[in-house]
Amino acid sequence: MDLSLIPQIKHTDSNNFFLLAGPCAIEGEDMALRIAEHVVTITSDLKIPYVFKGSFKKANRSRLDSFTGIGDEKALRILRKVSETFQVPTVTDIHTEQDAVMAAEYVDVLQIPAFLARQTDLVVAAANTGKTVNIKKGQFMSPESMKHAVNKVTETGNQQAIITDRGTMFGYQDMIVDFRGVPTMKQFAPVVLDVTHSLQQPNQSSGVTGGRPSLIGTMARAGIAAGVDGLFIETHFDCANAKSDGANMLDLGLMKKLLTDLTAIRKTINGLQ
After folding, report:
1. What is the pLDDT of residues 66-83, one digit of tens each?
2. How far from 37 is each of 149, 226, 250, 252, 256, CA to CA, in Å?
3. Residue 70, CB half-sphere, CA atoms under 13 Å: how many?
4. Number of helices (H) and strands (E), helices first, in the chain?
5. Is 66 exposed, middle or buried (0-12, 13-18, 19+ CB in 10 A)?
6. Which DSSP helix (H) or strand (E) runs through 86?
7. Mean pLDDT, residues 210-233 taken together
């Protein structure tokens, strides 16, 4: 996989980690542009290759009354506006083969949710668009098994595959990241650590997913030290009132300090190699 082939991505020669970051869900145009502008400014200063992340719809919800989106086309148009306004690539989740075709008209990277990482038709449909495909490792899948998920992309002729680890289910309400899997999965594709989702606490009795955002810094630093190629971080300027995953997102105001620290760690790691 060649990171530089993602349209509009910058700083690919900086030897820094790359970043997929943004809100869990697109709630509106103003919020998306506000978050993107903040992260673009930071990543430009630190020379971090950046892809703006936002889900155009949320299909994996605990309760029927949970927020799912503002409308597919409306949200996708906002993702396109973010890309055009700030000259950055964008990534969004897809859930069906039809989503793959539709979203590919608006974004640069298609993301396969962890629950759907084994859905062959979905992965192949994403690959066939020619877009970069980011496959989240299922919470129930071994690092070794991700070879087959990546092969579903590459065997279509699309070499642009990424693996994102968002932890493995431990009991019913905790996710554990096994960093032993990083070098294993790097044999198949670049590896991203999903920092914020790996700190989720799903399956709460309320039907609202919990989280441990106080550990975001710890998890991100460990990921960089373990040699991941990129980080995935969901962020919001008002986490308490975010419409999805507010309990485990990073407060936008903390992003600059975190990314500055992580860049310094990455430089140290680079010097040891």
Report:
1. 777 899 999 999 999 999
2. 34, 29, 16, 11, 12
3. 19
4. 8, 13
5. middle
6. helix 72-86
7. 93
Q: How many residues does the chain have?
A: 273
What's the burial of 63, exposed, middle or buried (CB within 10 Å: 0-12/13-18/19+)? exposed
Confidence (pTM): 0.94
What's the pLDDT score for residue 207?
53
Per-residue pLDDT band for 58 (boundaries 50, 70, 90) equals: confident
Average pLDDT, the chain: 93
Give all strands (DSSP E) within 55-131, no chain letters. 90-93, 109-112
- Cβ neighbours, 10 Å, residue 122: 23
Alpha-carbon span 24 to 236, nearest angstrom = 8
Q: Which of 93-97, 204-208, 262-266 has the lowest mean pLDDT?
A: 204-208
Angle between helices 29-46 and 72-86 (to 10 degrees): 30
Judged against a pLDDT cut of 80, whether residue 239 lies above it is answered with yes
Here the tokens at position 130 are 């020619």
Fold of the CATH domain 3-272: TIM Barrel (3.20.20)
Segment (H or E) for 72: helix 72-86
Rounded Cα distance between 136 and 132, Å, is 13
Comparing 5-14, 169-178, 194-203, the range with the smallest average pLDDT is: 194-203
DSSP 149: H
Q: Sketch the domain layout of the chain as residue ranges.
A: 3-272
